[in-house]
Sequence to fold (275 residues):
Amino acid sequence: MALHAFVLLPVVCLLLSLALLWRLCWFSLRPSSSRGGARRSTLPRLLKPRCPDDCPACRLSCTNPTVRGPVPSPARPWCEVKSRRGAPKRINTDGYACPNQQCAYFGITDSHIHALVGDGKHGHAERIQTFRCQACRTTFTSRHNTPLYRLKTPSHQVAMVLSALAEGLDPSAAERVFGFRQGTITIWLSRAGEHAHTLHKRFFCHLHLPHLQLDELRTRLRCATQVLWLWLAIDPLTKILPVLQLGPRTQNMAHVLIHSLRQILAAFLPPALHQ
Fold:
């Protein structure tokens, strides 16, 4: 009897061990029902080589090559076209250009070439200069294509509010401090941002930046539930940000950032570095 009990005890222990081992293996092979979903594999991700065919912009440029039209002839200086009669120009028009795209002097800011003259001033809070193109008879103000265009608020007050917003003041707090409506302040901020983007595209070109660092920052807008990423390129020496892109963390956004950076750097980098 003692012999049977001595033999039966190891057998029972062995069966319990097998049952416990089988249960542990079954739980490990069971699909996870947690919020995180299935566990990620620890195997290293295989990196695929990139080529221009992976970029939508590169494929579009290859399939649809840009066809350049004939180069327009330079505009003749207006002082050579107009009559010598009349009063001389008294208002300095250097830096302004005719906004009419059909005019021969469209976009020309040189006062020795374009046909702009002063055409009086208007405004109650501030006297705003008006210009007139003698070639096409188009009139416009000195605030055309600026954040102050058709605003009745004095410019120094708008500048004060925008400066406070640039320092980190919230628009709702700016409404209480300066007394302007939050919707009005938001419009000023949007106009200033669009104008800053235009100036960025105009002056941030042909930059000689020997070193650049690409980075992405995770951010979330107050009125958006989706997480966005701020793609940027920064010069570690001068701290210049030549390119900024806001969007999802996708390969397409990476291509957009590189293409925007290429348009700035193509002026002084050899073509071999862009391939």
Remarks:
- The CA atoms of residues 174 and 220 lie 22 Å apart.
- The two ends are 87 Å apart (CA to CA).
- The chain is about 35% helix and 15% strand.
